[in-house]
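Reopening this ticket.

The earlier resolution said the output was attached, but the attachment link was broken on my side. Pasting everything inline this time so it's all in one place.
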Amino acid sequence: MHESLRPSSLGSPGRGDSVRSKPSFVPPADRSTSESSASVKDRPVEEQRGKLFSQRINSLLGIQIVATGSYVPDVIVTNEDLQAEYGFDPEWIEQRTGIRERRHAAAHQATSDLCTEAARRALRSARVSPKDVDLLVVGTFTPDFSCPSTACLVQDRLGLDAPAVDMHAACSGFMYALVTAAQYVATGNSQLALVIGGDCNSRIVNPTDRRTAPLFGDGAGAVLLARGEPHQGLMCYQLGADGSGGALLDRPAGGTRRPASVDDLEAGLQYLQMDGRNVFKWAVRALTDTIELLLNHAGMGPNEVSLYVLHQANIRIINYAMEQLGISPERVFNNLHRYGNTSGGSIPIALDEAFREGRINRGDTLALSGFGAGLAWGTSLLRW
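Inline output:
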């Protein structure tokens, strides 16, 4: 058993403190459910969402990440490959996104396969048996099926005796899953929780669309959560949502609102659609506003954080936000150039790689932030 799972190292029960400042955002005006996605997209981004992000902050201490694991498919798709097959400009992709290559799942693989392998690697790292896991939460928005859940498929593959549930928050999925599982661990209702973020994005983007296809890749990451020392865990965090901007990044057809018709499929409405310009603006603000909010709450300066492990969406989003906050580039972990945007898998894959590279040590303070479709975000200061 991993030494940090031994009874002597388990701290006192976790603490869940809620700090609620007076909200300073202005709720968006009501709109009827018949309003079209097109009309929403036509409005300026500031009219599609509240004027400011929520000020609600919480904390949850007494938990720790005891192991990490990640998996990406073997199939590497380079920018040059996209040029050869679809005529995309490799230099344009790298200049605008920072992405040089991404991984695509093989024909026989789906999201549950990626998640299962990432989980197995985390379990091996912790030297624990799947029988020790008593909770499984999977953050994904590309499930194998509408039902059963991807979490149930992973539970069966791993042989877990545990409840299993998916959390659908797109690129914020891992953060939502992490905070949810942490509640169970902190209260003693879970002794060892398995949290996975994973997506198979290559199946939901139009491969011929140069605005979206080059951005996304497939992959999954996993962490194991257990009780920790009183000072460990989520020093402060914020989960937020603003559904008024949902049409900025969506899949119009294929749900119960609009079951996919033949005409929809021919028009490609089953694929991910994105208003890139406004999503970029929103993402930069989500990243800067929420990190600044948490740093101020914790009384920390930007360079007191050991490492920033952020959603790997676009290198320009990350660089611009970090410049705005005055954060040194060496404190920011990036692997976007190799994997692209893996959505729910983005943060846990980066966490695993950073840990294996020796960039994360006990007592370090990490800043984690996921943001994307929903619109939704999750940001935390985590003490390792």
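Reporter confirms the inline version is readable. The chain has one domain: 1-25+40-384. The first strand starts at residue 15 and ends at 20.
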